[in-house]
Amino acid sequence: MNIKILTPEYVVFEGEVESVLLPGKNGEFHIMTNHAGIVSSLIGGKVKLFTNSVGEAYAKNLTKENDKESVFSYPIKSGVVEFNHNKGIILCE
């Protein structure tokens, strides 16, 4: 599935991921391939991307969570996610 993370200043990440873990108002929620369409607000926390690789252009924006798994994170203050047809856009600050 394709995920794009945008801030008002720049594109944080765009690419294929296995899944994404997001900080929602009622707790974290996981979006995986073929997830039903969703629009949700996000609170402060980390957006975690589960992917095998991150392009060089985006690697500087993300933090690798651990050495064993391919999990990369990006801290946010708030935001909104829209996901439909295996494409997601996360607008955040």
TrEMBL record:
Keywords: ATP synthesis, CF(1), Ion transport, Membrane, Transport. Belongs to the ATPase epsilon chain family. This is F0F1 ATP synthase subunit epsilon. Gene3D superfamilies: F0F1 ATP synthase delta/epsilon subunit, N-terminal. It comes from Chryseobacterium herbae. InterPro entries: ATP_synth_F1_dsu/esu (IPR001469), ATP_synth_F1_dsu/esu_N (IPR020546), ATPsynth_dsu/esu_N (IPR036771). It comes from the Bacteria. It is found in: Endomembrane system. It is a peripheral membrane protein. Produces ATP from ADP in the presence of a proton gradient across the membrane. Pfam families: ATP-synt_DE_N (PF02823). Residues 1-56 form the ATP synthase F1 complex delta/epsilon subunit N-terminal domain.
